[in-house]
Amino acid sequence: MASLEEIREIRLKKLKLLEEAGMDCFPSKVPRDMCLRDTKANFEAFEKANKEVNVAGRVMAIRGQGAIIFAVLDDGKDKLQAVFKKDDMPEDLFKLFTDGVDVGDFVSVTGPLFVTQRGEQSILAKKWTMASKSLAPLPEKWHGLQDIDERFRKRYLDFIMNPELRDLFFKKAKFWEVTRRILKEEGFLEVETPTLETTTGGAEATPFKTHHNDFDLDVYLRISIGELWQKRLMAGGFQRTFEIGRAYRNEGSSPDHLQEFTNFEFYAAWMDYNQGMALSEKMMKAVAEEVFGKTEFTTRGHTFDLKNEWKKLDYVTTVREMTGIDVLAASEDEMKAKLKELKVKFDGENKERLTDTLWKYCRKQISGPAWLINHPKLVSPLSKAKKDNPLLTERFQLILAGAEVCNGFSELNDPVDQKQRFDLQNKLIEAGDSEAMMPDHEFVEMLEHGMPPACGFAYGDRLFAFFVDKTAREIQMFPLMRPKDQEVAKVKEGKIAVALIDESLNLKDWEKLNTAAHLAASLGAHVGRSLLMQDKISTKDGNKINLNIQHAIMMKNVASQKELLSVLQEAKAAGLEVEEFTREMISTTNDKKVIAATLQKNYDEIERLGILIFGPKSVVEGLTKDFKLA
Fold first, then answer.
1. Is 284 helix (H, G, I), strand (E, B) or coil?
2. Which of 5, 117, 269, 355 has its CA 20 to 30 A from that of 278?
3. CA separation (Å) from 621 to 53, 172, 359, 472, 617?
4. For residues 546-563, average pLDDT
5. In this predicted structure, what is the pLDDT of residue 529?
């Protein structure tokens, strides 16, 4: 097989051949009447009129030889077969095509439309010209780009080889178009607010920091879509505003956590959180129906239907029922003890972080749709306190597939209360909490001038990702990647294998070891020798020892089949290598029996004793960070 450099040299020779024949291989314009989709829509009329048309596209396949050549053109909207017959065009032009054109080239073809004997709509080439000569080959059709990092790094190739991926981004564009249209129909004004701020507000997250040279001032990239700015607009007389834009959070990467993503936020004066819930539910149902043509979705191991009743779940009651902990009354030590008992990893020692971690444990078991309400004030620093219980707030979040996918509040407009909450957040910052919200004293001053009662609401890329059952990384056209040629002090990131065992099955020790052993063996069988740095190592006296794989293998526990299936599907969506060990596999060593038994069940009915996930260390650790070592 020729190397990439050898292929490039061959194509450079073809380029020279075409240029010497007088063909411009990189023209500013080529004959093209319309896109291929419109050409095919008007095919019968053009064919009947025997009218020559001009089409253009990328050559995706070439077959045939001798006097007839078939080429498939793709312009990103549709495909069309072009037929090149030696007797139907100048001989030199036919020879130039056969000698000079490669898969990947862009060409313009002129000729009449016709239907082949096999019934395929085609264009009979009378003449052609190069639109853009490709010097590098496309990925091989059936294997494409196997390395997930390479797919994201060379996203354009991913789009070429996977038309369904292009469709995903057309849907994403429509997702935001429908969102924008509904908001405008509801009387909201689209606004633009600063992305550079002296203090970040509207969320709890670590910001990116940069420097404004002219002002000699450190500033931050925003972590929300202008929450504190839009509230200033309400104080200034704008009653309903919204913004769709990019937010930036300088935190760890995982398939579902990115440093840059699209969100939207609206703010409506004279609306409380109950009215906000009603409007938001109406919006999201309309978006789902218009963009996807359905309301039922399956994602992350859960299935939900937006047409069902959106139940309301009380935050404190739900956590108490699922863990036995009253987050309002429990001490930090009691919370930590419960989290350790549940084998849930927790970051941070303060009550705010512990409360949030307990809730995260609970939410994974909820498919939804359900509104989470009555959040503790401690975890909601910008929402209005409830009159009947000042420890709780008028906040609402939609729960889908075990996660919060949007957020809303009756907005806090009491300047005294807001200052007290900012003071509390400042103490958290001083104690080392990098995600606590920065106090904004100018915002408090605005509130002292008066802001009307209001509701705020937000959703974004995360909601779209759940609708299409993709990771947040997959729905970014160009996710941030470390440049290949960048010199870094760190050793290149390795890979890691993590075996997850379902502890709810109460497996015996031999069953756990058997599961882990089979998962590791399956990984070796499917991934092969690339796991090895070298086959053998030598002892001092010249004897050989087989070297084990170069990557770390860890073993962790998960709490349930639902949790196991959820992380399994996330890992597959992220393009990781995944091995599965099922009940049938431990019950018999007869493969035919395993195959027959598996055929009797749907995928989500399979009982898995464990799974193994293998891939880039940061991605695998991001997916499995909440699970305890076995």
1. helix
2. 355
3. 55, 28, 21, 16, 6
4. 86
5. 62
